[in-house]
Design goal:
heterodimer; A: alpha+beta; Ubiquitin-like (UB roll); DNA polymerase, domain 1; 2 domains; five-stranded mixed beta sheet; 5 helices; 5 strands; 16% strand; B: alpha+beta; Uridine Diphospho-n-acetylenolpyruvylglucosamine Reductase, domain 3; Enolase-like, domain 1; five-stranded antiparallel beta sheet; four-stranded antiparallel beta sheet; 11 helices; 14 strands; 33% helix; 25% strand; binds flavin-adenine dinucleotide; binds FE2/S2 (inorganic) cluster
Chain lengths: 157, 288
């Protein structure tokens, strides 16, 4: 196989990996780097479980080839808590019980983080539209939205 | 499969030309990766064009904007200048997928995937946009409507790729709009869509119009007869109804569980009216 060598920064760590041309970033994160916090739901861009931040943009890692990210910066759920201290979004997800099975949670947390970095004071409608590409089969979304709104308020104060 | 990342336009066309098997140009990958995973395509070569210098640029020229082939929906819509220049194209681009898909998807990918339901294509057509194509014989330019020739098929020759899309300058008091009907409000594919471009005189009378429809035929359609009915009017009800009727006649949609032929044709007329009115309103706001 013709392997590709790729250098990236993942959660501020510079790393290199070897991958096949057809590997996605999701494959590499989970299988090569053992960062299994990023989940695979659909593999086709519909569910958002695989959401990561790639050079400041929220993307589905299942739809990005690993070869494409040479020289990029990636943030995953593993980088969200700093020195063991949970991010306000994570704390509010726990407080509001905004998760049940938890498969969607890392993707939603990363998506919500990307939103609050751009818009610290979103309306509920803005939160709902921003997160429309993150499916949750368990919670009914309401608690997720409350948790994001509360985390945003906390981070502004 | 091989993956290549050309650094120049020439290198890209050379690699594409040299490939004996199936070569796929990769922009945002939001169509290609889905098709690969579903087993619909098995490319031998992927040519990622995103590292070609200038391919992510937005250039203001000749009163319009040249949008690089690798400009994503997110990049387009955070640019207030582009949004106010071409609100119809901006809203069509913004409708593609979720926030995550917006981070990757491109107009050129949307165009070259050649789906009859592609959201940006009716809007690009209504605004008379052109595409700049780089190939082994140099650079050529053509109307965007010449590129998709049927579902999944384009007119691009081997070795060619689209480098940018040009949104031309618009006369004073002009604007555009785009709307689609989907079963769900987010994350769905259009059953029918419509785009309108109108130009008014200083009294609010329409002097020029373009109407285009998506998802009602194998490719996007420009309905000249319909647009003509708006000229000389202030888009009053009777002009709009006659225009909608012409749109209905121009539809040759498929019949499936998402919409019957009759329903799609009817909705095409309704959406054409609404987009024409919205474009009219936007253009009117520019008159003192
Ligand atoms: C979850 C999800 C939701 C979606 N929702 C919508 C939607 O609402 N509306 C909609 O219209 N589409 C939708 N799509 C489809 C897709 O996102 C769009 O068509 C998008 O614009 C494709 O752009 P891309 O850059 O990702 O294309 P790619 O996948 O990179 O390419 C698409 C096609 O164009 C060709 N191509 C790409 N760039 C060039 C170039 N520069 N020159 C020549 N050929 C080129 C490729 O070879 C390929 O055949 C959705 C997709 C997903 C996964
Ligand atoms: S796994 Fe990527 S969107 Fe579902
Ligand atoms: S908590 Fe189960 S999918 Fe969201």
């Amino acid at each position: 196989m013709n392997k590709i060598r790729v250098g990236v920064s993942v959660n501020n760590d510079k790393i290199e990996f070897l991958c096949s041309p057809e590997d996605t970033v999701l494959d590499v994160l989970r299988d090569n780097l053992r960062l299994t916090g990023t989940k695979e739901g659909c593999g086709t861009g519909d569910c958002g479980a695989c959401s990561i931040i790639l050079d400041d943009k929220l993307v589905c890692s299942c739809l990005v080839l690993a070869g494409e990210v040479e020289g990029s910066e990636i943030s995953t759920i593993e980088g969200m808590a700093i020195d063991g201290k949970l991010h306000p979004l994570q704390q509010n997800f726990l407080k509001h019980a905004a998760l049940q099975c938890g498969i969607c949670t890392p993707g939603i947390l990363i998506a919500a983080k990307a939103l609050l970095e751009r818009n610290p004071d979103p309306t509920e409608t803005e939160v709902r539209y921003w997160l429309a590409g993150n499916l949750c089969r368990c919670t009914g979304y309401d608690k997720i939205i409350r948790a994001v709104m509360d985390a945003a308020a906390e981070m502004r104060s | 499969m091989k993956y290549s990342k050309p650094r120049t336009e020439k290198e890209a066309t050379d690699i594409l030309l040299a490939e004996k098997g199936m070569a796929k140009i990769l922009a945002g990958g939001t169509d290609i990766l889905v098709q690969m995973k579903a087993g619909h395509i098995e490319p031998d070569l992927i040519v990622d064009i995103k590292n070609i210098p200038g391919i992510k640029d937005v250039i203001s020229r000749d009163g319009g904007y040249e949008i690089g082939a690798a400009v994503s929906g997110y990049d387009f819509n955070i640019n207030p200048e582009l949004k106010s220049f071409a609100p119809g194209i901006a809203e069509a681009f913004d409708l593609i997928g979720s926030t995550q898909i917006q981070g990757r998807c491109t107009m050129v990918g949307n165009l070259c995937n050649a789906s009859p339901a592609a959201d940006t294509v009716p809007a690009l057509l209504a605004s008379n946009c052109t595409a700049k194509i780089v190939g082994p014989k140099g650079i050529r330019e053509c109307g965007i409507e010449k590129i998709p020739i049927g579902p999944g098929k384009t007119s691009l020759d081997k070795g060619e790729f689209v480098k940018s899309i040009f949104i031309p300058s618009r006369p004073d008091f002009s604007s555009d709009a785009y709307m689609r009907l989907t079963p769900r409000s987010e994350m769905d594919i259009a059953i029918v869509s419509a785009a309108a471009f109108v130009t008014l005189d200083s009294h609010g009378v329409c002097t020029n119009a373009t109407i285009s429809l998506g998802a009602v035929a194998p490719t996007v359609v420009r309905v000249k007869e319909a647009a003509l009915l708006l000229i000389g009017t202030k888009l009053n009800d009777s002009a709009l109804s006659r225009m909608a009727n012409e749109c209905k006649k121009a539809c040759k949609p498929i019949n499936d569980k998402r919409g019957t032929i009759e329903f799609r044709s009817h909705v095409a007329g309704v959406l054409a009216k609404r987009t024409a009115l919205l474009a009219y309103e936007r253009a009117g706001e520019k008159i003192e």
